[in-house]
Amino acid sequence: SRSINLAVIPGDGIGQEVVAQGLKVLSAVLPQDVKLETKDFDFGARRYHATGETLTEADLDALKRHDAILLGAIGDPSVPSGVLERGFLLKLRFAFDHHVNLRPSKLLPGVATPLAGQPEIDFVVVREGTEGPYTGNGGTIRKGTEHEVATEVSVNTAFGVERVVRDAFARAQARPRKKLALIHKNNVLTFAGHLWTNVFNKVAEEFPEVTTEYMHVDAATIYLVTQPERFDVIVTDNLFGDIITDLAAAVSGGIGVAASGNINPSGEFPSMFEPVHGSAPDIAGQGKADPSATVLSVALLLRHLGYEPEAARIEDAVAADLAERVGQPARSTEEIGDALAVRVAG
Amino acid sequence: SRSINLAVIPGDGIGQEVVAQGLKVLSAVLPQDVKLETKDFDFGARRYHATGETLTEADLDALKRHDAILLGAIGDPSVPSGVLERGFLLKLRFAFDHHVNLRPSKLLPGVATPLAGQPEIDFVVVREGTEGPYTGNGGTIRKGTEHEVATEVSVNTAFGVERVVRDAFARAQARPRKKLALIHKNNVLTFAGHLWTNVFNKVAEEFPEVTTEYMHVDAATIYLVTQPERFDVIVTDNLFGDIITDLAAAVSGGIGVAASGNINPSGEFPSMFEPVHGSAPDIAGQGKADPSATVLSVALLLRHLGYEPEAARIEDAVAADLAERVGQPARSTEEIGDALAVRVAG
Ligand SMILES: CC(C)[C@H](C(=O)O)[C@@H](O)C(=O)O
Ligand SMILES: CC(C)[C@H](C(=O)O)[C@@H](O)C(=O)O
């Protein structure tokens, strides 16, 4: 019989609330014969304040013994900026070699967008997750003086770029429109830009059916608000991917519905699934957070583990729920979770 | 009697067409007693193909002997990506220490925006122009092999950050709302991020009337499309500024009306004014380009040189022209330039 051994990291702020709904929907959607085992991990601000630890080797060992990880949100104003981001979130992505950061953007019927004219939006961003300006390479001299110099080094390797570009081409090949856009800034960041562009063009030869285009990241932000329907699959570097996926989320229904997967395609390490939004301390504990992004992240998780019908059922349930919201009073985090659980079970 | 000694760089693609209109409006707006002298410089793709040169020391010497520079656009698909950008545009910004890259965004009445609900948009981005990931620092080893490693080094100095942050505070102080947002990614790029944040907080003490906020660049893209009215003045690094000013242009009327100044506040070197848009080779020579962005760049140029009433007259003329476009057939580049020249003279 089948089983899912899931590591759960509720985290900070609204993380707890949304993850509870994600798990509720997960339990409701799984067939009887699938055994779901979950283990909670208390990472984030509380743990940091109590012990000074963010993510230890022992933690990584414990997490590694799971099929996948579901994360709510990590981050709190009481912790200096960067400590939990670098010490937990990025440390985990790097340790588990999550090099494919998958972020779908789909504007569902009935969902509000800040864009006029309700454009058709249905694309997926494949963001590199283990290189670029995120490596933590760099440093500071003469800190705090008027002669301070601080550097950040973006590190890009043919190995790292090729594997994520190949993943993106395969995804584009599998979609009806078969389009792939590379987003970079190769006219200014010429060293990294040429590496990305050359690798992209080389891998393109193996995928003759995929239509490709190149776009500078600044121009891409224009197209994301004026012609978002032009995108099908996008592949891009870690930092550009961070920036454009927030914009993509904003135009396609907001971060309340933006899901993501930090994927290790080889399966050597468990992949991690999390909403794109943060811990939103301003609304934490009030039942105001929309759990849809977490629930959609559970769908990505199920698809990754091979439960395609269940993933699709969750996505359909969220779409139906969103469509019915129009003109209705706001519901609590739990009410939305309950409604989704009923839908996926039914 | 007063005089303006202007270096003109029409450049590539639509650069020629839009600069001609910019100069037309400049001549029309200047009082009789101001002597305008212009000198054309043929930089860009033609020169590069003919001589292999992009910008020589002699060129810089010649440019230096002017009060200001007006540039159309540089760039052509026939030149490899990066050659003219790094060899001309960025070389000039760095050589003339254009550390304040000023980019106003104002959604004028009657102007179309991709955003629903016609929000109020009136902010200015102060983008650092001589540091960050734009320094060209970095390199490549094992180029073209499967073991290639390419790096890009973002270089940030207290000196460089403080002068641009101070400039932004002064601008915020002079505006009615007196608000300044720092945009960075200090939770990931912790070395540069902490430098920017510390300098920002230190300079803030000298401007107690200015309300400040900090925002990550990814979150900023969300606010730019959901709450653009929240921004007054933004200060940010070179690369983040590049990205968010294209997005800002897109939401506030498009790159057809986005002006910019590359300013050397000390006056040691001439400042350069240019539209945010590129050379648009696809529509070059067809009279389709909107010269408004160049004309508005001329207004920034005049303001920089102390011709405030003339700058305001140009801005009013463009606003009036844009408001009257609604429902009218499209006009040519020259027709728009003629109309603006008549307005500013009248
Ligand atoms: C919190 C931060 C480290 C993270 C990132 O920059 O990747 C977040 O913005 C995201 O997009 O997942
Ligand atoms: C053409 C390029 C070098 C330039 C930049 O990145 O600064 C452009 O995008 C701009 O914003 O002026």
TrEMBL record, chains A, B:
Keyword tRNA processing: no
Main location: cytoplasm
Pathway: Amino-acid biosynthesis; L-leucine biosynthesis; L-leucine from 3-methyl-2-oxobutanoate: step 3/4
Record EC number: 1.1.1.85
Enzyme class, first EC level, given as a word: oxidoreductase
Swiss-Prot/TrEMBL site (Important for catalysis) positions: Y134, K185
Catalytic activity as recorded in UniProt: (2R,3S)-3-isopropylmalate + NAD(+) = 4-methyl-2-oxopentanoate + CO2 + NADH
Keywords carried by this UniProt record: Amino-acid biosynthesis, Branched-chain amino acid biosynthesis, Cytoplasm, Leucine biosynthesis, Magnesium, Manganese, Metal-binding, NAD, Oxidoreductase
Pfam families: Iso_dh (PF00180)
Binding site for substrate: R93, R103, R127, D218
Cofactor note: Binds 1 Mg(2+) or Mn(2+) ion per subunit.
Cellular compartment(s): Cytoplasm
Cofactor or coenzyme needed: Mn(2+); Mg(2+)
Binding site for Mg(2+): D218, D242, D246
Record-level Gene Ontology MF annotations: 3-isopropylmalate dehydrogenase activity
Description of how the protein assembles with itself and partners: Homodimer.
HAMAP family in alphabetical order: LeuB_type2
Reported function: Catalyzes the oxidation of 3-carboxy-2-hydroxy-4-methylpentanoate (3-isopropylmalate) to 3-carboxy-4-methyl-2-oxopentanoate. The product decarboxylates to 4-methyl-2 oxopentanoate.
Protein's name in the database: 3-isopropylmalate dehydrogenase
